[in-house]
Design a protein that fits this description.
By secondary structure, the protein is of the alpha+beta class. The chain has helices at about 10-15, 20-25, 55-75, and strands at about 30-35, 35-45, 80-90, 100-110, 115-120, 125-139. It has one domain: Hotdog Thioesterase (Thiol Ester Dehydrase, Chain A). The protein has a six-stranded antiparallel beta sheet. Strand 4 and strand 5 form a beta hairpin. The chain is globular and about 45 Å long.
Amino acid sequence: MVELKKVDLMEVVREGATPPNCDLTLQIETTYAEEGVSRGVWTVDEKFINGNGVSMGGYLASAADIMMAYAVVSKLQPHQTFASIDLHTTFHRPVFPGQVDVEARVERLGRTVAYVVAELSQNGKKVGDVVSSVMILEK
């Protein structure tokens, strides 16, 4: 079994450390993550576009999932980690090539579960909302 490198997400935001491969692959950059709120920019280009000329919805969900990870980790203690339980996405309009702003927020942080929401917008218009439940684990 190959041991994969773990990345401290807060070091990515605070110190400019190299982000996880999923962030690099999706071309999403986290610009802020503190006290349960994170913000970032997803750069959509031709790799994410389907036959209808718009981004596949799964990429939008992935962009939200990534930003929600930063929101959650900004609230955790050093001995804690997390994993998604579920992810529900509502699409409001199609995403075209260009920049998408992503903001995620921890709505509630319990002992074992966090509830997180994300909003994605392009050119000032909401393109999607995502809600997720996240399990809180001991490292």
